[in-house]
């Protein structure tokens, strides 16, 4: 079967129109996320989330390491205060695991995820002079949240990213949307 250029253009135009139509039909509403756009770090559109994360990153890299340490301390505190609630929500929503195991996993993520202590500068000296190596932030990171461990993944990635001076856009699994978004909102409240 041969397709001439005119027919090919018509097919492409038809497909693009169909994709555009489907895209507008499938937008997630703010009500389905139980949040307005941007409130506590929850966004309806990925582009809006990325734009907000980029702005947050630019602010974060201006902060001192000590200020990042304070933010991480605040995140650990709010997670520990809501440990049982986020653990129950993750089990109820996903039907995976046991609450007591999620509590322990979330506790470990909150208390044992390294903060800025792993960001020590290193200096080398030889006959050619001295080299100082300091770690630099990457920027905006994308994180896909699994349904198996949604809350602990958000906690671990959130602390790790902030320690490194990065911001993060979380994309939760559909089965773990509420627990993931709730944990993201807690971290945003702590910041």
TrEMBL record:
Molecular function terms from GO: oxidoreductase activity
Span of domain Aldehyde dehydrogenase: 44-190
Pfam families: Aldedh
InterPro entries from the UniProt entry: Ald_DH/histidinol_DH (IPR016161), Ald_DH_N (IPR016162), Aldehyde_DH_dom (IPR015590)
Family annotation (PANTHER family): ALDEHYDE DEHYDROGENASE-RELATED (PTHR11699)
This protein's name: Aldehyde dehydrogenase domain-containing protein
Organism of provenance: marine sediment metagenome
Lineage: unclassified sequences, metagenomes, ecological metagenomes
